[in-house]
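User: What would this chain look like folded?
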Amino acid sequence: MSEHLTEKQEAVLKFIEEYQLAYGKSPTLREMREHFNVSSDNSILKHLNALKEKGFIEKDDTPRGIALLQSVRERLEGTSAVKLPVLGFIPAGGPVLTEEYVDSWMEVGEDLAKSAEGHFILEVTGTSMINAGIFEGDLVVVDTKKTPRDGDIVVALVDNQNTLKRFIKKDGKVYLKAENEEYEDIYPETELRVQGVVQALIRRYH
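Assistant: Here's the prediction, encoded as structure tokens.
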């Protein structure tokens, strides 16, 4: 932590940086209030004004008036964007990039996906992976060309059902493990086909 900032100021600055990197713009006061679970604009404004006085941010009075941080500008300018399809679910036959299945498109940096080919984004549903830090509504970047290794988190087709789980190889057997004690391990009755390996997580703060 910077010696010039309090712990709360550092937390606010970090959130601003993460939000700017994810969306290319600054969070609103409401979004910051919701993220830090506070009811008053004043508590956020106090930290923003302190950050401004100390030279860590530049801001005006518009809703998204915090200028892009220097660290964010450098990373965004040095990163080529890759446009990937966002899928709400995976058809049984695998990722199908047609209007029927693509919910939207999202640009990500090359640090998340080197190219559009062989990659897609899946919106997570359910709570089976919460102990791995993956929550409902999160987005995962999936590489369809990567060979799964023991312990990888994968999107898989198991007996004609899609699921997001941890890939486990043990004693010559392959199965899928949830990261939530309320869910049982999944052993395929007829088929287990990995459709892609998760290589990044994107969390939207709204």
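The chain has two domains: 7-77, 81-202. If you want, I can go into more detail on any region.
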